[in-house]
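Changelog excerpt

This revision adds worked examples to the README so contributors can see how folded entries look when concatenated. The first example is reproduced verbatim below.
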Amino acid sequence: MSNTPSGDERAEKTPGARRRSLVAYLRSDDGDVPLTELRDRVVANNQILLTAIVAAIFLSGLAAGWLGNAPQFAAGVLIIVVAAVSSLAVPWSRLNPSWVAVVPLVDILAIALMRSSDVPGVALLWAFPTMWLSSMGRIWFLIACISVISAYWTTLAVLPSFEFSWAIIVLPAVIIAIGASAYNATKRFVAQRALLDKQSARLGAALRHASRQEQLLTEVLDTVDFGVLRIGADGEVTFVNDALGRFQQRIPGFGKLDYVGEMFAADGQTPLSAADRPLARIARGETFSDMVVWYPVSDSRRAAISLSARRLTDADGQPAGVVLVARDVTEERTALRARDSLVASVSHELRTPLTSILGYLELALDADDVPAGVHRQIDVAYRNSERLLGIVSGILAASTASRLSAEITISPETHDIAQLLRSSASDLSQLALERAIRIDVDDVAPAPAFIDPARVRQVIDNLISNAIKFNRDGGTVVLGTSTDGVHSSFLVRDTGIGLSSADRERVFERFFRAESGVPGTGLGLAISQEIVRAHGGDITVTSTEGLGTTFVVQLPVTAEVAASDGAATDAATRVAPDERGQP
């Protein structure tokens, strides 16, 4: 590719390009009117203005009767009229722009003839061709001044009544001043025009860029499968993408401010009041995420829509409306229902044979002819069967709950947590020995609590078994207790792989599994949390990825503390329900 600059580029780099005259501008386009056509108009307007003034003087001379003594004046008027006709008849757009200068030069000659008739004040007419020529550039400014001054002095010289005075330099000075003013005014006009042209080009480029961005954004939003609705600061809907249009076809009136159809909460059963509807909340200035609303599609079917609202601000930080994002989660919610139904069915089917097994084991334990060694083995099988039945019952309770919180039934009594920790550590010691993991119970001290021993034992077993499963071979599991007379706590710390920050936030969600490769159902910690909260306690987790994890469980010591803590937990749950709960 050649690096030689084009003609336009060379022109922009030369000093003359910055001093382009009006004639140079008449070589290009000017918006809606082509400047070639504008050139014809400029020539005609300038000449007709001068012709009109000369005609007025001529007519006044006829009325006054002095034209009979001024034949040169009539000749000058005739020349100007001919020049005016030429300005209208000649196609100046087809000629070189410099030919335009012929008309004002002829005007200078015609005015000189009229001035030679010794008519007072006619010399002032030289201002018109002077301004015209000066607007065409520096050279034409000099030509205008020289031509007019020369014509003026020549006419003075041929007049018989000429007398030398300082007046002969007044008109030349005025002509030079008028020409200089016209030349400078044209330069400023040209500079302003160039600046406006650049600004117009930049604005045009910015407009085209904004249009392309808007088109791209619209195309992207029209290809996604979630609906986008924008409501302006005045409350009017200003944007709807294709996906939202499909929602509106499926759910008549969806996304409209005046929608009055039925809406149901995340459980699919509770009707939403007018104040709790999404658009009503948006009107109050609220924002929300993943609010699931069920809309009737037909008499027998409903659609679940997940809604998120975010407020917008303009460049000045002022409110600019709201964006509402809608996603169809009907299939997801249906799948969650099917999954929970399956878990509940399996848990129910497991509980029946486990109950039978426990009955027969209990009969075997009550028999008098069972040897002592066999009795101990049956007792271990019986206790583990009881634990398994408790786990199955917990899974069944979690799967049938309408929200994330399971409806756990407990029978609390005052019991020592230390006893439960030592017993669980003893039962799981064989599992730990298989991987050379040591269970440290040195910090386990008596810690009374008002608890259901079987339920809390289920929590302890789950935490210790997790600490073993997610530990490193040869690692350590540390158990400890503490009490202040109001609350008793115990901790389970491991030296395992730890949890990432994202996993820590979801570790108590049902069916959540961290990317560790360790098999499991993802229900243990969720059920443990619900058991602890059912006691009015709390469970927390701290973890460092690669170093280990610590779970701390706090439980009430007395029934009074348990009652107050439980009421506070229930209130917090009611104030901030999880909208992701399935229907």
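The second example, added in the same revision:
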Amino acid sequence: MTAELVRGQNQALAWTRLEIGVEADRALTLGAVLVGAGDTALGGAETVALPGGRGLPGVGVPGPPATSHRLAVDLDALPADTTRLDLFLTLPVDAGAPARFGAFPAPRTLLVGPDGAEAARYEVTGLADETAVVAVELYRRRGAWKIRAVGQGYEGGLPALLADRGIDRESAHRLAATARSLCAAPAPAPPRETPAPAPAVQGSAPAPPPGSAGPVDYTHPRRRPTAPGTGHPYTTPARPAPPSPAGAAAEPVAGDATGWSMEERLHNQVWGMFEDLARTVAAYRGAVEFAEDRRERETDAALDDSRARGGQRAADARATASERYGTLVARAQEALDRDLAQLTAESRVVEPALPMALAGWDSPVWHAYRPPERPPLAVRLGDLRLPEAPELRVPMLVRLPLERGLWIDAGRLQDGEGESRPAGLRALAAESAALLTLRLLAVHPPGALTPHLLDPAGSGTAAFAGLRDAGLLAPAPAAGAAGIAEVLERLTRRVDLVQMAVRGGAHDALPPGLDTAGQLLVVHDFPHGFDDRAVTRLRYLADEGPAVGVHLLLVADREDAAAYGPLLDPLWRGLLRITPLPDGCLADPWVRHVWTFEPAGVPAGSQVREAVTAATARARHGRR
């Protein structure tokens, strides 16, 4: 799977022989420079690889300006004192060439392994008047090689880039002139179709015109639209941005994403906000890590000379390294604060506009509750946040029908100092399950979802009393193992019958009396009361049920199920774990953030839960 890197993010390299690729909508020049201690070019102008020149040890000769490049690199063949290999892009000097990177869609750099498979991708966003940019760097860290997305641009072009690596100005200008004379830029290639990239989030590249091929538009709030009904982003802006003063961010607009309905547009916009927050925090963390790594390297270089280790020169070098570190971190913090302010402004606009299924329990939309006429696109489970932005919460939405079951963990939580089990956690887990069951019932049309509750020990009686008294739950099964077996047998039979009907194309052949509504099985205090046969059936329902409208909501403490050994491990892995209290329990596979999940709760003193329960019960009973 291709990793989508963001500025400042790094990734370990699995090989030492690889290729760096470039894809762009305009012809670009690719080059490389070997860097040693002190962030300076190893051998001055002799260690710069440019088109038409000679190759460097371990680095191929770059080709002429083109829209697509492949540069072979053998890290084992680099000089032993190489600490870094910088790969840069410059604009060719030609009548048809753009004058700055900001005038065309952001170029894309690729990491290609020895098998030819693309392993990582980085879109060099955020460029404006720059004419040269260090796209990525390959660097050695504690004996291992890594790749880092850099995206550092230079308005002074290649001479400024090389001078920043210790090459004298005269040599830098001579190299740039030589490259220009050897590389006549070809005519720009016609626009080409570009496949939609994996989800990525915020940057600041200018947006291409609607309908043109180009990279993702990361500018708020003109987020990439989504293919109707798929949830997957495309690469053109949803609509032209309204005019705004130069340098000012566009005003956020609720529903400023694409979709067939306002509900779908808001859903896509919320996911765009999630992606934006993930990326801007990843960029901040990567920039801080880069600053720390640079400070460490500069400090180590100052201490290499044992004779000057305790002298004024070493103290000055350490002070300079610390000053550079502070400057880099301050810039990263400034960019983070700017992006967070924009996301916060967007959240203030989007949150009040969310429809019932996506809104929090404190939203006024619940006070005017009316049973819907059709199932919603998605449902809100709670909110997500990151430690860098504790006040900014992004709704956590899951698409309906549920593709996987839910597990409300009544066990231990991460409390910041380790794992703990707060008092009353089991009761809170039962309350969360009952509240989530009510939300699922309320956002479906009357009779479209039938909930079943299995609570063998009766420990969830108080939490589910409101739903039971209102007649919103299926009739309680018989007590003990017999009741559990009867419910599981009925739902298993339903799954089998519907599967056979779907596979055979005989939807009208289902037996009379079969409940064709969606089914929600709520199991409280699992695995109490479950024998081996019941556990096997529950696993079957968790695996096969979602595809035919049977969904699972489990309330359990995994430690209580330890006696079953590894038998239940596939069940835990197949369910989406959420918690009844705020907890760092969710990690996204994209940038690997650990998100704090906060369950959706009813505000203290609010009667919205009772009002929605009564209205849902009236609609359900009136339909019968």
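Reviewer comment on example two: Residues 255 and 266 are 5 Å apart (CA to CA). Residues 262-303 form the longest helix (42 residues).
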